[in-house]
Amino acid sequence: MAYVNNVKMFVRVYELGSMSAAARDQRTSPAVASSRISELEKHLGVRLFNRTTRALQPTENGKMFYDGARRILETISDAESEVIEANENPRGTVFVAAPLGVGRRFIAPNVPEFKAKYDQINLRLRLSDRDVDIGAEGLDVAFHLGPLADSSLKMRHVATCSRVLCASPDYIARRGMPENGEALVDDKHDCLNLRFPGSSEFQWTLETDMGPRKFSINGPYESDDGDVLTNWAIAGHGVVMKPRFEIAEHLRSGALVPVATATPPVETQLVCLYHPRKMKEAKVRLFVNFMIERCKTDMRAAIDGV
User: Which residues are CB-contacts of 201 (< 8 A; sequence separation ≥ 6)?
Assistant: First the structure.
């Protein structure tokens, strides 16, 4: 088992590019991570990484070993899954990522029910509105809201999500009611922006008489947390674009009011992403099937106010 743990640590160091990041990922210390890599290098008789004070780079031998090491871990995982499933005792840990709004409203509240049903399966939930890299971040499943880049990952559709441009009545009283997307550009209104590392320029894609069109927007407020943007909008600080399921209760209460209704936002998709081989694992398959159904039901209830 020690050799397997050493190989697993090597794979995570290779993928994350950092001994400390791999240690955090594997819930151990950088010293233990370094020791495991050293043991593996001693066993193989080669250096797997070139270490300097500023960088950690795989050697040619390390690059060569990586593909085989990944296959070793995948084979072990597949074998474990077959044995566990044959004994009808699914267990293990599922690493899941989701956008903040989806995770807080629909994933996290249903985790206790899933855990009660499958008490040998543990969940590690990471919430962020940034795009995640399933392979590099050691994830089994990722829920994604928005357009997708080309990918070798498998996708399960969860829901088609309408979005709304909205602001508080106080903001509209002070700044006026924007009728369409044109009214939002060139600093005519304060737009609340979702930004995280790697974000490009801010553009909202809206439906027009000529079809979908991108509008470049600006504003003094930005955050990497979508719920923060919602709270700012309710407080009267600007116009926000949000999935309807996230703000339905505020629309019903009147805390937020739809704006620029002549050019509504283009609908987006909520999907569940995973590597094809992951669905062979009972723990992943059970979680995906369970959570997709719960998300569909709870999302409809949030929108309808049930």
Answer: 216
